[in-house]
Amino acid sequence: MKTRLVKLLSIGILLLWALQTNAQQRFTLSGYVKDQQNGESLIGISVSKAGTGLGTVTNEYGFYSLTLPAGEHDIQFSYVGYTPIKMHISLKGNQNLDIKLDKSSSQLNTVTVIGDKKEKAVNTLNTSINRLDIAQIKKMPTFMGEVDVLRSIQTLPGVQTVGEGASGFNVRGGAADENLILLDEAPVYNSTHMLGFFSVFNPDAVKSVNLIKGGFPAEYGGRTSSVLDIRMKDGNNQNMAVNGGISNVFSRLSIEAPIVKDQSSFIVAARRSYIDILMKPFLSGDMKDTKLNFYDITAKANFKLNKTNTLFVSGYLGRDVFGFGTDVNMNWGNKTATVRWNHVFNNRLFLNLTTFYSNYDYSLKFNNGSTKNESDNYQAYNWTSNIINYGVKPGFTYYVNTKNSVHFGVQGIYYTFKPGKGVSQDGENTNIKNLTLQHGLEAAAYIDHEWKPSKKFGVQYGLRLSQYDFLGNSTAYFYNDTTPGIRKTLTGSKTYGSNEVIKAYHYLEPRINIRYGINDNNAVKASYSRTTQYMHQLSNTASPTPLDIWTPSTNNVEPQVADQYTLGYAYDATNGKYEISAEVFYKNMAHQLDYIDNANLQLNQYIEADLLPSKSRSYGLEVMAKKEIGTTTGWISYTLSKSERKTDGINQNEWFLNRYDRTHNVNVVVTHEINKRTSFSANWVYATGTPTTYADSRLEYQGWDIPYNSTDKRNTYRMPAFHRLDVSLTLKGKQLRRWKGEWVFSLYNVYARRNAYSIYFQQNEDDKNKREAIRLSIIGSVIPGITYNFKF
Amino acid sequence: MKKKFFRLSILAAFITGFSACTDVIDLDVPEGTSYPVLDAWITNEPGTQYIRFTKSVSYTSTGATPIISDATITLYDETTGDVYPFVFADSVYKCDPANGQIGQLNHTYRLRVEYASNIYEATDTIKPVATIDKIDYKYKEKGDDGVSKEGYYVRFYATDMAGQTDYTWIRSYRNNMEKANILEDNYVIDGGFSEGLSDGQEFPQFVGESVNDDEHPYLKGDLAIVKLRSLSYPSYFWVTSVQTQMQSGGLFATVLANVGTNLKNVTDGGSKSKILGWFGTSAVSSATITTN
């Protein structure tokens, strides 16, 4: 492993050297691009030499580096929503140039961007990337008045969910646990509050959202289906700013301010829901003690130590609390912390060193404290589980010249899984069941070369070497192979000492993206990537729940591996008003997990005996048309796809549709600025109903009518199609010099459709001799929302 | 327990005003293949034991279930060698032991079904069951202890037997044991959630109170009947599979998956014909109380 790593790195360094010797009499222009008003670093800004194809975009930290021949150049900095800047530069040596861009006052008078738009799909190398700015997200209709990052990405092609209230989303036919959700580079294990209704990301603290569905750059790994890279705001380093909102569900408040102007700043943002408090008057007796709330705090600070060093510290803490009085209490939440150091070695070599910590835990408690009789024993039951990881990842970018740049680095994550601990108390008598902790170390080295020999052609190719060790101190179990679909029997176990390797896996993951520009407006692209995943969320319900545990790859559970092929086409209208992109993909996924019928996934030391290896494949077409400029903006996305799996022991070992398969999926997102103070937006979604299994017969047994499917086939039916319209109206108040307020009125599910979350079969509650098919709609009517947002 | 969790999630939906709702809908599902279904549960309760043998029908069909009357069903006590023939009369197969009871603690039983030129067999063992020490009730107003309906809430008391892992099926009825009067089915391991967690402890209060239908609590003058049935592990696995299929609503619903059967086709020369259902055996501990 180590020697391979060294080899890989030395090849990379040789390559760099070879590339560099070509570059003579050239100098480098580099620096940071920031927002004029608040000092936020700007991501994805086009930096180009006017009238030529030469250029680059700023990275995730707002840094750019552009190497050009010595001499006179007109350099243009541009991005949608910002007034472009053109600078005349006499390049006589390496030069540092920090730029501040002004926000255009409104989309109405956005100057048509001239010259190259490096950030547009037609010009980027990668396939399958969708980037959303928080400004774009904030324009979309909301659910109960709350701007939501996860809901916004569900309007993008290739992203599906099983329905309202689903705790996860599915990308290109992958399962919900195959999305790497990063908040300032720390993984987040449960991205939703309140069982899936709100996302954990506070919109006031989010800067940008990047969703990668395929053609993964080599720096990303660890999940097979997608990367959702969420970057937090740095905090205003010019003036103190307060943002807030009050809605019928919760309140938000964020404060950002410079610590030292232009040098350092912070942001602290918090939210708290108060549904339970509002409900109190409507509840009687002990129900008044019902708790149902969540809160989260997001904070970040950055320190520009000097011209070449910047330090970022960020963290997130969120919690959902759910209970009746003092007797029943469930709570869960994520904690993350990230420390990043940006270092510019010279104008062309950029380092970002990230270290992170992430923890997801839940607990479930019952006791009879308030309901017990005096003579009764105090009885309590307490169940906890968590997953903790620590990671470090130094990543380098070497901007060799305008045609070449190289990304390389190493990464390591140490995982500890606590599958579950149960404590049962009966008076003085306490029993504890503590499942063995599991440990894993995931290490990777990668190198990725971006080569754009001409305006027409570009390629990004890379390799990721990933290594995973399932480690002691833990116990490995060994099982007999039996008929698939039946619980396996234990044949033995072995205990391993601290850090002893129980099982190791390694994979080579090639990645490539190719772009060919037909002309300025049209480009075709292709990509291939292999991704691996060493952890698995165990969930046999329709969508994951907060109480689903994660389990590492072990001697019994192989890592997941996915191979994805993508072909794409991108069009950008000459005037920059429209963009159209289309992609087809094919994805093969190996070693996914399925479950034996009635698998016991909780507090089960021998859980692996209930798991079945499974494989999936998915393919589809995605089309997106987007308009970013003018009084009416928005996008239409359409996905035609199929996702199916094959598991020995299920469905007579034949292929069957995944629970999240939707053949057609259409999203229309439109925002119209009626005047400077009023805007209207609408969102309509249509999706084919998800596959399901219906009972075609019943078995009478001991007073039960057991639903049964006599074909023994899974997911051969489909639920009715899902569709929904949401609208919202934003009214900006008088924009006083300091205080700026706006009202947002929203209607979710305007025509009150009862979309089916599930259809199930049961005996009538009142007449057990009557049997019914029941449709469960999580949202059954129109949901209004009112929010007042303010900033000063 | 699952139910409790299910209710929490629905409550979440209600409280947030999401207006989660359920509707009875008409589904056009083609009629499936009809299979024979054996409903055989032998206990150590004294008197006649019954076995039903029917045919599966369309899930929502309202007509009477077709009954199979021409099978030969025999129960063998593998421990003593006793043979109990079951005879068809009045739509069920019956066996009335001359004296006392058929089921004996710790005995293994084999059931043999001869039907349509095929022979099917299954075995199960009667495990010991915890004794119900006491049963009582409490009148609760709406809101007391978090209940949503006022009425009489029954609770039973039992203590898990220390040592082995005990699987128990708790069933409650209102007034009589007709199908329409079955209230709740719950399953516990050592009186609690999980193997090895609550061995030898008293059944927790929420288990003792799990016999109530919270939507329809007992009314004044109702007779509450509670039965604990011991289960072998395979029978536990099967009845909890059934439970999963019967309660597949809610946000955390599992997907529909067919329940298996322990009835194996043992016909000489092999045959692929199958019958569904289960042969289970139990020791039973019961208690009743009238609310007034």
TrEMBL record, chain A:
Membrane topology recorded in Swiss-Prot or TrEMBL: Multi-pass membrane protein
Domain TonB-dependent receptor plug positions: 145-224
Leader peptide range in chain numbering: 1-23
Subcellular location: Cell outer membrane
GO cellular component: cell outer membrane
Keyword Amino-acid biosynthesis belongs to the record: no
Domain TonB-dependent receptor-like beta-barrel: 306-748
Pfam families registered for this protein in UniProt: CarbopepD_reg_2, Plug, TonB_dep_Rec_b-barrel
Superkingdom of the source species: Bacteria
Alphabetical keyword list: Cell outer membrane, Membrane, Receptor, Signal, TonB box, Transmembrane, Transmembrane beta strand, Transport
Family, as annotated: Belongs to the TonB-dependent receptor family.
Protein name according to UniProt: TonB-dependent receptor
Species this protein is from: Chitinophaga silvisoli
UniProtKB/TrEMBL annotation, chain B:
Record keywords, A-Z: Signal
Pfam families: DUF4249
Signal peptide span: 1-22
Keyword Signal: yes
The organism's place on the tree of life at top rank: Bacteria
Signal keyword on record: yes
Protein name: DUF4249 domain-containing protein
